[in-house]
Each structure stands twice: as C-alpha cells, then as structure tokens.
Fold this protein.
Amino acid sequence: MLRHALGSCAGTTLIPMPDTDPLVRSSVRLYYHPEAERLAIYWADRFVLEPAKATSGADSEFSLWAIGDHLELRRPGEKQGLWMRAADLDRRARGGPELLRACGLSGQVGEFVGVRVLDAMAGWGLDGLLLARMGCSLVMVEKHPIVHALLEDFARRVDLPAVHAYCGDGFAWLDGSQTFDVIYLDPMFPERRKRALPGKRMQYLAALAKEDPRSINRWLEAGLGNASGRVVLKRRLRDPEVAVPDWQITGRTVRYDVYRGQARAQARQ
Ligand SMILES: C[S@@+](CC[C@H](N)C(=O)[O-])C[C@H]1O[C@@H](n2cnc3c(N)ncnc32)[C@H](O)[C@@H]1O
C-alpha cells in the first residue's frame, strides 16, 4: 500500500512495476534516516530489501539512502551522495537551450501540451523532465534499476503532469505499437581517456550503467519508424554522424542530430 501512497503524488503519474515484479532482487543496500522511514519502506519493497537504519556505511559498493524527502545514491564512505533536485532542472534549462530547440520545444514553460515525447534512455531524467516541463507528455524508460530508482524519485518530487517513468528496455517501446511526436535518444558515450574527471552524475552513470549492445544505427532506425515528428540523437560534439541528419543543433560539448520521423501520426485520444 505504501508504494501507492508515495507513487500517486498529485499531478505526476508514476506507474509502478506490478507487485509481483520488484525492480531487482539485488544486494543493493538501502539505509534511511528516521524521518524517511516511509520512503525507505517503499523502496525496500520495490527492491525486495530489508531497510537498515543508517550506519557509518562500510559498504564496498553503491548504497541507496532515504533521507528527508528523497532517495540518494552513495559510494562507500560518502557523507553526501547523488540526487537530483528541481533546481538542477533550472540550471540545465539555463545552461543550454539546445535540447529544447532540437526537440522543437523552445518557448514558454507549459506551452506544448499534447506533444508526446519518448525518452528511451532516460538516465537520471534531467533531459526528459526538462522536456516535460515544457508541457508535453513524457514516457521515460531507464534500464538500470538503481538509476531508475533515482529517476523515479526525482520525477515524484518534480511532480509534473503526464510523466510516466518505467524501468525496462527502451527499445521495446520502438516496436510500432505507438508513435511519438519526438523520440529522444541519449545513449552512453563510449569511454575514452579524459584529462578532466567528469562530474559526479557522469561518474556514477559510468560506474553503474552500461552501453546498450545494439548499435546506435539500430536505435535510430527503430526510432524513425515510431516518430511522427522527429528523432533527436545526442552525440559528443566531434562524434561521427550515424546517418546524415536533417539538421543539427550544436552546444559547447555535445551535438543534437535531428532526423525527420517516418511514422504516420496516431490519432490523439
Ligand atoms: C547518457 S545516459 C542518459 C542521461 C539522461 N539523458 C539524463 O538526462 O540524465 C544513458 C542511459 O541509458 C540507459 N540505457 C542503456 N540502454 C538502455 C535501454 N536499452 N533501455 C533503457 N535505458 C537504457 C543507461 O542505463 C543510462 O542510464
């Protein structure tokens, strides 16, 4: 029952996995501070875990912490882990309008009601929720259960209408059974030697999430067949093009290759 109490916050629709299908039967540890016991019980239920009262955290791997109103991810010994805040969305919006331009969603916040967007590799959900803030309806799919947990927790706190967060394979949404106006693909970039250490969000993603085994070309083709508007593929600035895009939007370090979708628009319900 707790999962429903937490999952149905006014406005945001978060569709939980069925009761019989927990996120992962894993050994990930979940700690909580006393004020966040309810949140901890919800996530313990989703992960099939026993929540433990906070200790010094002598784990060898990542652990989840329910603290205050949020869930956070910590490395061994860390006092402050990673979690996304609504302010991170503001920062992202200020930091680069390129994503919104690439997706055809530049304008006033809330202006694009009725535009259907699929973020098939949603990660922490920052890009997806930035799009949702423009008013569109958004399906976010993230494969890694722990990344998904942080994403779902973030979406619950941001509390936008018409946001659906799923844990699973985003490619399964490109099976022709429904179309989207915009399909956004942000695959993991292959690792490369870097001079500077990337930010915490990227470090944690690199440690947890894996590149999808399918080629980007396959994702693009499948995306085109399911997009009535456009497919937006995020690339590093100097990465080769997967196919010649219809247009490109370039930022300081990344590039958005935009392709016209090939699906016929579905009637809106
Ligand atoms: C670069 S990150 C996305 C970052 C995201 N745009 C954000 O704003 O945080 C790519 C994500 O795709 C996820 N992923 C990889 N293959 C996937 C798949 N087949 N289905 C769903 N998610 C997948 C990875 O686990 C990773 O979290």
